[in-house]
Design brief:
Distance between the termini: 7 Å
Radius of gyration: 19 Å
Largest sheet: 10 strands, mixed
Number of strands: 10
Shape: globular
CATH architecture: 2-Layer Sandwich
Helix content: 25-40%
Number of helices: 9
CATH class: Alpha Beta
Order of helices and strands: EEEHEHHHEEEHHHEEHEH
Structural class: alpha+beta
Low-confidence stretches: none
């Protein structure tokens, strides 16, 4: 086996809106949302090995290696394929935890897609997405790699092409557990169903934002500040808020004015994940 190391981009996502349609019998929620990627994310380095061992070389405080989604994804694929190969994996982490940017799900999906090729398993994207869904509801969108109107728990995807705005993404000093949002009695759960052809920024919202701004003043205060400068909305279950602009310069001008203590970055919205192009290039030029 070629034991070279390979680098893969693990992009962020934003939810342009997020409606909670109702609670399911299994305890999950039926949702409607639109996912879009950002040209900002983590870098994952993978070295395939022949010893069958899966190692995460980057340590995360408070998270055991076996509990990290990166290792969970690799193990799930290895088990599904009854594969005897292994991998050493490291990550340059930029995406915040508890931000609603899908960092963990993106990492898991990137590992699934990359190892499928590095281990030469030939699983289809749908097969990888099915494996990924057991790890998290947002994993399939990163596997498929296209902007989509999503339903169910987020796995029923219809391709869409929203405007690729420039986004200022901001995060106050708070992390929010997805579980805490979806178990809250203050979460709206009865937003009417819409079709993929009906949605727009004007006729949608984020139901989770209603709950989060009630319980997290840091998010509420930041949102109130941002909305004075540009259309803004919380992504996912928070705590990150995106504000959208026609130009990069406009986004950066507002970024300069942010209150102290706010994490931020400016990124371009993408309807096509860079990871897809990266995998095509790898298969054509440098397959192991």
């Amino acid at each position: 086996m070629n034991s070279a190391s390979y680098q893969f981009f693990s992009p962020a996502k934003i939810n342009l809106f997020l409606h909670v349609i109702g609670r399911r019998p299994d305890g999950y929620h039926n949702l409607q949302t639109v996912f879009q990627f950002l040209d900002y994310g983590d870098q994952i380095t993978i070295t395939p090995t022949e010893n069958g061992k899966l190692s995460l070389l980057t340590k995360f405080e408070g998270v055991a290696e076996q509990d990290n989604l990166i290792i969970k994804a690799a193990k799930a694929l290895q088990t599904a394929a009854d594969c005897s190969l292994g991998a050493e994996i490291s990550i340059e982490k930029k995406l915040p935890m508890g931000g609603g940017l899908g960092g963990g799900s993106s990492n898991a999906a990137t590992v699934l897609v990359a190892l499928n090729q590095l281990w030469q398993l030939d699983y289809s994207k749908q097969e990888l997405a099915d494996i990924g869904l057991a790890l998290g509801a947002d994993v399939p969108i990163f596997v498929h790699g296209y902007a989509a109107f999503a339903e169910g728990v987020g796995e029923q995807l219809t391709p869409v092409a929203p405007p690729e705005y420039w986004y200022l993404v901001t995060k106050p000093k708070v992390s929010i557990s997805t579980v805490s949002v979806f178990t809250s009695v203050d979460l709206p759960r009865n937003t009417p169903h819409i079709s993929a052809s009906e949605w727009s920024m004007a006729n949608t919202h984020n139901d989770c934002q209603t709950m989060v701004t009630k319980h997290y003043p840091e998010v509420a205060n930041l949102y109130a500040w941002l909305i004075e400068y540009a259309p803004s909305r919380m992504t996912g279950t928070g705590a990150c808020i995106f504000s959208y602009f026609e130009t990069e310069q406009a986004a950066r001008e507002v970024e300069k004015l942010l209150p102290p203590g706010i994490e931020s970055f400016v990124a371009k919205g993408l309807n096509h994940s860079p990871l897809v192009d990266q995998m095509v290039q790898l298969s054509s030029t440098d397959s192991p």
